[in-house]
Amino acid sequence: QVQLVESGGGLVQPGGSLRLSCAASGLAVTNYAMSWYRQAPGKERELVATISRVGISTNYADSVKGRFTISRDNAQNTVYLQMNSLKPEDTAVYYCAARPSFYSNYVNFWGQGTQVTVSS
Fold first, then answer.
1. 34 falls in which pLDDT band (50, 70, 90)?
2. Is residue 88 left, alpha or beta, with left meaning phi > 0 and alpha meaning psi from -120 to 50?
């Protein structure tokens, strides 16, 4: 059974940092491009960041460039999202996703999500 389990979300003040983790089981993340998506209340789910299978290539939404960093540890079967300089508009449920390739829009597997709330 494939599982992507996110952790690390929580409540943080504006300007603060959080590090999200996505631990995979039942699949080898090295076989997938991995992404983080987010969905805020009343909004559509949006792609935040993607990293290629071996971590050479990354891509970010304009809204998070320079603040968020996606990384992966294939040996640990885990993907991370380091979020710095957080803003209230970053508040959302963050989802980990496994995709067949860096340029594909298709998602093979989704995690269950972790809540990030940025508020003073």
1. very high
2. alpha
